[in-house]
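User: Some background: our group keeps a shared notebook of sequences we're curious about, and every so often someone picks one and asks for a predicted structure to add to the entry. Today it's my turn. The entry only has the sequence so far, pasted here. Could you supply the structure so I can complete it?
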Amino acid sequence: MSLPAEKGRCAPYGNYICHTFQGGSWADRSPLHDAAFQGRLLSLKTLIAQVYQGFNVNLVTTDRVSALHEACLGGHVACAKLLLENGAQVNAATIDGITPLFNACCSGSAACVNMLLEFGAKAQLGTHLPSPIHEAVKRGHRECMETLLAHEVDIDQEDPQHGTPLYVACSYQRTECVKKLLELGANVNVGKRLDTPLHVAARKSSVEIVVLLTDYGANPKCRNADLKCALDLATPHSKVEQVLLLREGPASLAQLCRLCIRRHLGRSCLYTVHRLHLPEPLENFLLYR
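Assistant: Of course. Here's the predicted structure to add to the notebook entry:
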């Protein structure tokens, strides 16, 4: 049984739902679930102590939703920690493959994300299961995204349905996430199969994102499955079209040098540039400041 998204709760991610239930409306929802979702730490401690009443920390609903799922969806770090310390399964998945880590990214709680990772949460349990980093990016939760990347999550991880994190950030026009992903070395030309981040930014008429992508070396001549380049997808006579037309010609020598240096340094660029002891203007240029 899959549940509809509730008013005021996290919306579906593709075909997935951040699982939670409305208090008291489902027969298999326990007081443990209620306390975890509402962040009632003292009640949760009491219930966990009452094992004889059946309040096991890994008690799940028919959809395999655990109290840890609920605590993370509510962003309640103390409750989530208490559950984990009492044996809650950190990688427990619902029938739709939703994990507590996914729910923490859904709620935007970077503290929950960090704690779950410290307790051994896996950022990707399977190729076709919901991806926490894509959910964080989709919702514009940059801190959650950065926390996952700091734990060596693949920055170019391509979700079969949604593409790379950068592609998702462009699709949902999450400019701050786009900036950070590019700074950290995301591949600017890898999106969803043949559709690049620049393609989706052009379709969305996102001028700022189009400028960012082209500054970081996006190839405006890449063609998607329909053999269209980004310029073909831009609204005629729009600012996006103007930007793309300006970027059609050869790049300046300074820009070519910057891209060459950044490619050579790779994903360590953001941290390595400071060690080169360059003049401040040159350092700022390499770091897009």
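Suggested note for the entry: The first helix runs from residue 31 to 38. Residues 194 and 225 are 6 Å apart (CA to CA).
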